[in-house]
Amino acid sequence: MAKIILITGGARSGKSSYALELAESIATKRLFVATCPKVDSEMSERVGRHQQERRGRGWVTIESETDLTTILSGQAEGFDVVLIDCITLWVNNILFTDEGQSPPLDDHRIGKLCNEWLATASSYAGTVICVTNEVGLGIVPDNALARKYRDLVGTCNQLIGKNASEVVLVSCGIPLVLKKSIRV
Asked: In this structure, are strands 30-34 and 81-85 parallel, antiparallel, or unpaired?
């Protein structure tokens, strides 16, 4: 049974760097699952900075914008730790690809999709670390799509947090443990 760790925080809080260091302290066979689409030059530059941070540190990277279940059920085999960065973009990508579908993406459907890969992750023979943004701490967005996105991310964060053995909030580069598994 896998150990699931959720690392959350605001934008540029240090959560991805913390997740990398944590994963590297756990195992040498590490898989990085990147969910970020390269939609413009800014995102390509951001992806490049993250790739540079991992370079020479023993990471294997798979880019997958939406299909976490397939990766965790097959491609992750042989790795001791899988780092998914990030859930926030995973939700964004599903919302984008689902645009115009009927019925529209809602809390129930995103919860079902999240629970599907969580079920696969729970049977994974290693550690799964998930990075996500805490998007619900700011002002209420002024448009329906942004509010929907915030709510969908919140739903996923709650589901992962409940299923995780550990939850860490990173603020100002400092990890704050919110939930810690008790080893007997």
From this structure: parallel
Q: 102 with 109: CB under 8 angstroms?
A: no
Contacts with 38 (C-beta within 8 Å, 6 or more apart), sequence order: 44, 47
Q: List the Cα angle 57/59/64 in 5-degree steps.
A: 145
Alpha helices in 37-143 (DSSP H): 41-54, 68-70, 87-97, 107-122
Catalytic positions are: 50
The model carries a pTM of: 0.91
Query: What domains, with CATH codes, occur in the chain?
Result: 6-179 (3.40.50.300)
Calculate the CA 37 to chain-centre distance: 14
With contact defined as beta carbons under 8 Å apart, do 3 and 166 qualify?
Answer: yes
* Residues pairing with 130 in the sheet: 6, 84
Q: Which two tokens stand for residue 165?
A: 């053995």
pLDDT digits (tens, 9 = 90+) for 62-93: 999 999 999 999 999 999 999 999 999 999 99
